[in-house]
Amino acid sequence: MNGRAVRYFIGHILRWEAILMAPALIIAMVDRSWGAVNGFLITMLLLLVVSSLLLFIGQKGDHSMQAREGFVIVGLSWVLLSLIGALPFTLSGQIPRYVDAVFETASGFTTTGASILTNIEGLCRGLLFWRSFTHWIGGMGVLVFVMAIIPLSKGSGESMHLLRAESPGPDVGKVSPTMRKTTRALYAIYIALTLITFLLLVLGGDPAFDSFCNAVGAAGTGGFSIKNAGIGAYSHYSQTVLSFAMMLFGVNFSVYYLILTRQARRGLMDEELHWYLGIILATLVVLVINTRSLFPSLGEGIHHVFFTICSIITTTGYSTVDFNLWPELSKWILVLLMFMGASAGSTGGGMKVSRILILIKSLGNQIATMLRPRSVHIVRLNKKMVEDSTVRSVHVFSLAYFFILAISALIVSFDNFDGVTTLTSVIACISNIGPGLNMVGPMGNYAAFSDLSKIVLSLDMLFGRLEIFPMLLLFSPAAWRNNG
Amino acid sequence: MFIIVVGQGKVGTTLSSQLCAEGHDIVTIDSEPAVLKKLQETLDVATLCGNGAAATVLDEAGAAKADLLIACTDSDEVNLLSCMVARKLGTKNTIARVRNPEYDSDLRLLKDEFHISLSINPELTCAREIFRILRFPAFLKRETFLRDRAELVELKIAPGSRLDGLKLMDLRRLTDVKALICAVERQGQVTIPDGNFILRANDRISLTADAAGLIRFMNDLDLPTPSIRKVMIVGGSRIAIHVTRLLQRNKVRVTIIDNDEQKCRRLTELLPEATIICGNGSLQEVLLSEGVQDTDAVLALTGFDEENLTISMFANYLKVPKTVTKVDRTEHLEVYTNAGIDTIVSPKLLTANEIVRYVRAMGSRSGQSMVALSRFMDGKVEAMEFVVPAGANYCDIPFKALQSRRRKNTLVAAIARNRQLIIPSGNDCLLPDDRVVVVAPRDVTISELKDAFPGGNV
Q1: What local confidence, expressed as pLDDT, does residue A6 receive?
Q2: Cβ contact A376–B272 (<8 Å)
Q3: Could you say which residues of chain A have pLDDT below 50?
Q4: Number of CB atoms found within 10 A of residue B62's CB
Q5: What are B432-454's pLDDT values in tens digits?
Q6: B275 and A374: CB-CB below 8 Å?
Q7: Is A374 on the interface with B (CB under 8 A)?
Q8: Could you tell me which of A159, A233, B151, B204 has the fewest CB atoms within 10 Å of its CB?
């Protein structure tokens, strides 16, 4: 283990967390909510001191790393981000219990959007801003951000370990030859799309502050809303803008990159994209029919169902209506969408469409092999062969996913809520959605859970966001042992 | 012509011997002295030991004044380089063997860039041949002439067929299709038949007609024309890949069996529509469990002749309608045919044939008149394409009248005149600039059209 590299990177990340807190601090100052200002100032000071120390001792020497360091840096920095990012909430006294604040912050960074707040509008604007902004930071990845900015050792491929550990999807690749250009391109697309959403919302007449919070919430596919009524508090126009924004943020960003670099054909021929859009369309038809009696007009029905599907499949978790009141079929289709999630390489969570495709295809292959033992089959995605190692890692990932799901549900069941609440709360957290069904439905929240459950659910969010392995490795003693 | 042949592998030696037999001056280049020594003992050629792509070696071989260089070493790159260097040194035409399918798409570029007159892909040539055979599985061999207008096919008369016991004169009563039976093989003996000839079961016959006529001919005589829907290929070679692609374009279902797991995965990647089986295709158990008995054709394309032959014999035993066997060692073709393995492809022969055909076409441009040649009935019969020279003394005379002058055992099988195909009868005659196909047994040497009509002045 190269501790120097770990310290160096984490130092950078913490410094950037302090810098990224500045806008929220300014808003708090403008609003004269001194409690929040205090909270932010103390936290930022702490972050700057710690990061300077880490950078000072980690500055010199080599920062070379292997896959192991990559995983550890990513896992550790996300835990630290959540733990420290929670401080302003507690120090300002607006979320008095630290466990709650950590849950809320983890939920923010992991773009889950699950909240323990019963009265969201009670928070001051500075903290609301920070809460929503964490979605945006976490959406594309903190390390991807840092890599776009700090100079990394030139020409070495080591930073690939970081990208691989942080980016979602079964097979992470660079879109352009150098890591710096890749991460910059991704962030440029991310910022541009966020700005477009923001402008469209402002043009619709929403206040700038609300528009910004909702735009970053959709961009990171997070789902924190700053109103108690959720997105239901805004106009149909804003809801429609957000529907499409969420849908677009659930698409693999390399598709946009290809389109921008005039390779639109290659980008649009993406198999995962077709399935992603196809699934949205198919579930839309089924759900609109199934919920027909709940809405006054067909147009209204299509509007709200489309919003809900985009919100769930991209694992955002915004809501305009309480889908907990929908028929069972619709609810369970939504739960299945929660499992699946958005595309690889997007800001969405869940297992990812491409993983599900690989799973189904390898299941088909397995059946074909059992029927004809000598026949040879390969998994093909985008007409190209998927490496055996990738297929295997998808199998292991799915297994781990359900294993963690089962254990977490077991622990949460100590709280003795009904089965649907217990199960969907864990699914909603591990898939980074936010709302589940029943008590944790779109109109409910996570306030009633015990501290133990909140800690488990916070961990689940991190497990889900980092796609399990970086977090799992933190618990493995072998990851911390010295080389040899 | 003065020809340099680089690389004396399977194709190289076949080529050298064929071209030598046709009277060309050959210099052969190879890096193996032993190969060259043996070659010099069997053929009247000059040999040169060295790297066929090196300018010094090519210069020594006389590339500066050579009419043609044929590069057929095992390496595509050496072949291309050899052609390029030869061109620079002054060779007029070059032919390269390029077999790597990855170069397929840039062949046009390569041809321009390296000034290559012709590039031959043995595997692709072989695959095309197999595909042509499978299109009409009733034919043992199928060949086109006269710019693809005339078909020359070989088929076997089954016992009980309407051809069994038929006097050739009476053929026109059974069908109005103009078709000509131009050679018959019975018990190893080849005859060029006349109207009084009576066909018997188990005869192998060669037939010329145009493509549409051929199908009607088969229908009129109630000859079976099975169509191939399911094919099993044993051996995942390059030929298998090419054939599979061709077949799948025609909606034929293909199963490929190969023993090598890595190769199987690669095949699966390249051929998503095909069923790939990893197993030893020479084992009966494997073939049976993969359903060989239900397929319409079995192609034995492994790298081992013995295995291919065994597989085909097994398939014949199971009454699979069509088997195609790849054989590299062509010395024993007759033996195999007698053992019931009737459709044999040999990449080596096919490649050599194609090159020889090209060389002949070059020759015909430079004054000699044979345009194409192909062999039938295990090489016992030759079909040759000629252009009728102006002012020949056999022109404008109906064949009836030419009878006495025609060389024994030769036959004009088809005539192409102004985009029209004529299957000749006694009333037809030759005109200058006609293209004609002449069929003759191999021992009758016909190098020019006038050799077929040796009689004196009329």
Answers
A1: 85
A2: no
A3: 484
A4: 17
A5: 888 888 888 877 777 777 777 77
A6: no
A7: yes
A8: A233
Contact criterion met (CB below 8 Å) for B18 and B41: no
Structure tokens at A416: 């003795």
Triad A163, A165, A170: Cα angle to 5°: 95
The DSSP call for residue B28 is: E
Beta bridge partners of B210: B150
- Smallest CA–CA distance, residue A189 to chain B, in Å, is 34
The contact set of B with A (CB < 8 A) is 257, 261, 264-265, 267-269, 272, 275-279, 286, 289-290
Query: Is B367 a residue whose pLDDT tops 60?
Result: no
As given in the structure block, the two tokens for residue B385 are: 């394409």
A301 C-beta neighbours (distance < 10 Å), count: 20
Q: Is B277 close to A383, i.e. CB distance below 8 A?
A: no
Q: Would an 8 Å CB–CB cutoff place A59 in contact with chain B?
A: no
Contact B61, B321 (CB under 8 A): no
Coil, helix or strand at residue B192: coil
**ipTM surpasses cut 0.90:** no
The end-to-end CA distance of chain A, in Å, is: 9
Residues from chain A contacting residue B278 (CB–CB below 8 Å): 374-376
Which pLDDT value is given to residue A484?
42
| Ranges A116-125, B3-12, B107-116, B297-306: which has the least confidence | B107-116
Laid out side by side, the sheet with B204-210 consists of B141-145, B150-156, B204-210, B180-186, B189-191
Structure tokens belonging to residue B50 = 């060295």
A377 CB neighbours in chain B (<8 A) are 268, 276
Asked if B267 and A376 come within 8 Å (Cβ–Cβ), the reply is: yes
Residue B102 to residues B151, B237, B270, Cα–Cα distance (Å): 32, 15, 12
**Nearest chain B residue (CA) to A369:** B277
R_g over Cα of chain B:
23
pTM score, two decimals? 0.79
Q: Quick count: other Cβ atoms within 10 Å of Cβ A390? A: 17
Does B269 sit within 8 Å of A374, measured CB to CB?
no
**DSSP reduced 3-state for B51:** coil
